[in-house]
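ok so I'm stuck.
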Amino acid sequence: MDAPPRKGSGAGSEAYPEGAVRVSYGRMTKACLCAGLSLADAEDVSQDIWMWMLRTGVPIALVATPWLERVVHNYVLRHLRRDYSHRVREGQPLEAVPEPSAWQPEGVFESNELLDRVAALLPKRERSLLVLIRRGYSLPEASRLLGIPAGSRDYYKGRLIAYARRALKRPAVIPIGRGSRDPV
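replied:
not stuck anymore, here's the structure
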């Protein structure tokens, strides 16, 4: 894109008429806007193109040709690639990050309520397993304490998940007869 200055054309000494500058700048900005850039980015890219044209000494005859459209196209692509690489490298801008909020314990209470609802629906073996897991034991440790064979762990895990899904679909009322039993 950055062509070296032409030695025989008097690079940099040729003055651009103001009318040609306005027309070409307007075309460049319009082409950038049509390519999907914001107004600020379109003006930045147009200014970059003009700086390149002044540095390289592009003759005024080329300013109003289809050649300029391709230059704008290439500069827009360069801008989009650079913008994409910045977003990938740096992540989202600070303005897009939501404000941090204080920790809310409601989620803990809601999960405890859900687990209580699940425990009320479970048969004795699964309820005992859930109680041990809630106390901090892993599934293998809890199943070993209850004497569940290693091959049956996935079966009981699946049953716990199925009961939890059913409990999510039910209303939040715990049945009177089942909620009063000792979980272990």
